[in-house]
Amino acid sequence: MSKAFLIDTSRCIACKACQVACKQWNDLPAERTINVGSHQNPQDLSAVTWTLVRMNEIEDGGKLKWLFFKDQCRHCVEPPCLIASAVPGSVYKDEDTGAVIYTERSKYENFDDIGCPYNIPRQDKNTGQMVKCTMCVDRIKNGLLPACVKACPAGAMSFGDRGEMQTLAKDRLEAAKSTHKDAFLVDDMEDVSVFYLLTEKEELYGMVRNDVGESVFA
Ligand code: SF4
Ligand code: SF4
């Protein structure tokens, strides 16, 4: 049965346990980072950072407020990256889970363009391969939660059957609206497998709505 994530940003505390867990499970090394005057670290996704908490500072009623967004592959239902892959077998969608998987054939030159509206895949400069979040299919096919979900100490991430996550997302939205009047669910839940609950308007996170209604970082 297709699986999905719910990421409830109203619960995220930006501890980055998800970032660390992803690296640990996938054997991805740390990378050198620099301080640019904020807590954003690292600055962006990379071939060895498949998920990260994006941090935005806003002013709210004269006070500083942090907004957090755990970025990762959305495991699109009809993946634009799969459609853009020019070499068969570069990208496939796992029938059981809905996970979008890149194989060793997913070299940069094997795509017409990368096609991802969310700017997720990155190229491994050593192998030429495009890489990204795998949904931890190796874990979930063995009855485990994705490593990032398992590691979250704040209950910000849930993972399970797609229909259950859609129901949970709607329930959480109703609850969040009592304290955050602008709370909403990003993207159409029929299009993606990662459902985000935001507490503020998307532009405050640095996102814009593109021509087909996807919320992407500007
Ligand atoms: S599902 Fe697995 S691969 Fe994807 S971000 Fe989470 S830990 Fe990383
Ligand atoms: S988010 Fe990007 S990389 Fe992930 S499935 Fe969708 S198009 Fe592909």
In short:
The chain is of the alpha+beta class and 218 residues long. The protein is 18% helix and 24% strand. The strands form five sheets. The chain has a four-stranded mixed β-sheet. The protein has a two-stranded antiparallel ribbon with strand order 2-3.
Average pLDDT figure: 96
Strand count, sense and barrel status of the largest sheet are: 4 strands, mixed
Please write the string of helix (H) and strand (E) elements. EHEEHEEEEHHEHEEEE
Q: Which structural class best describes the helix and strand composition?
A: alpha+beta
Fraction of residues in helix: 10-25%
* Total DSSP E strands: 12
| Shape verdict | globular
> Widest sheet: strand order?
8-1-10-9
| Rg, Cα atoms, Å | 17 Å
Ligand list: iron/sulfur cluster
What is the tally of helical segments? 5
Give the SSE map.
Blueprint: E1 3-8, H1 17-26, E2 52-60, E3 63-71, H2 80-84, E4 91-93, E5 100-102, E6 122-123, E7 130-131, H3 137-140, H4 147-151, E8 157-161, H5 162-177, E9 184-186, E10 194-198, E11 207-209, E12 215-217
Parallel strand pairs: 1-10
Antiparallel strand pairs: 1-8, 2-3, 4-5, 6-7, 9-10, 11-12
Bound molecules: iron/sulfur cluster (SF4) (2 copies).
One iron/sulfur cluster (SF4) binds near residues 76, 81, 100, 116 and 120.
